[in-house]
Design goal:
CATH class of the largest domain: Mainly Beta
Number of domains: 3
Structural class: alpha+beta
Largest sheet: 5 strands, antiparallel
Distance between the termini: 67 Å
Strand content: 25-35%
Order of helices and strands: EEEEEEHHEEEHEEH
CATH topology of the largest domain: OB fold (Dihydrolipoamide Acetyltransferase, E2P)
Number of helices: 4
Shape: elongated
Number of strands: 11
Strand order of the largest sheet: 9-8-7-10-11
Helix content: 25-40%
Radius of gyration: 26 Å
Amino acid sequence: MAAQGYLVELKGLDDAQLDHDERTITASISLAAGAERKVEMRVLAPRDSAGDALSVSMHLAHFHTMSEAWVHRTITVDTRRSPQESGNTGGGLTSAGVVTVIWLVVTSFAVALTGVMVGGRRGFFSPRAGVVAIMVAIGFWLVFAGMAWRDYRVLNEWTASTATIVGRRVVHHTVNSQSRTTGGTSRSSDVAKPEFALRYVVQGRDMLSTGYDTGSSLRVGGGKAQLEKEFQEWTVGAQVPCWYDPRDPADVVLKRGYGGAYLFALLPLLPFALGWFILRSALSGKP
């Protein structure tokens, strides 16, 4: 199966062995010459997966003759947008993309207006540079504000339910950093985050989707220790508490609460203070 797909239903194979972690199905069947066997699979794609194609590979082996063959098939699947994305523009911009474009326009207007009204010297400590520093800091805080609003809604507005885990995988993200003490040597670290395929009930009907947390958790040391613990407890077939968005029931999480990522909201304090000092000095007529 595709590396990102979750097998949630299988028909046509008796006593099939499913390995959800490896995305493989193993089965033995008796098939006479010229006969056919119809196999149906229902595959769930993660919410963040890209593309509109599903690829399946099948390895056929005949034990008596030791002959084998590989069969590859790719089909095009329909994609569905969530309610948060249904109101986007024809160019495919989501609500977050629209907000980003508006903020860039507002920042450009504020910089231009500062140059007209205040003027002053050019360079790193010019009034325009001060406005840019302030607007960039506010932009970062708006991102964290959106994250906090999501956490608040999960805690107070989302509906509680019980989910059955039908699949799981580990999503790896590579984070690059540069060290000044080693002459600018670049380092990369691997951050592992679990993702679970879930089956739960929404207003009397079954729902299939993927999720884990709200996005504000901070995985220390790449999250390997926490990942191993969660994979031991949250196995395929286990029933776990979950929370889903009543506006978009496909948006579901297993973990909720304000995470450690908000510590990074302190980083824009320095550019904001520097920009405020520069702008205040320019407005007060100081050199």
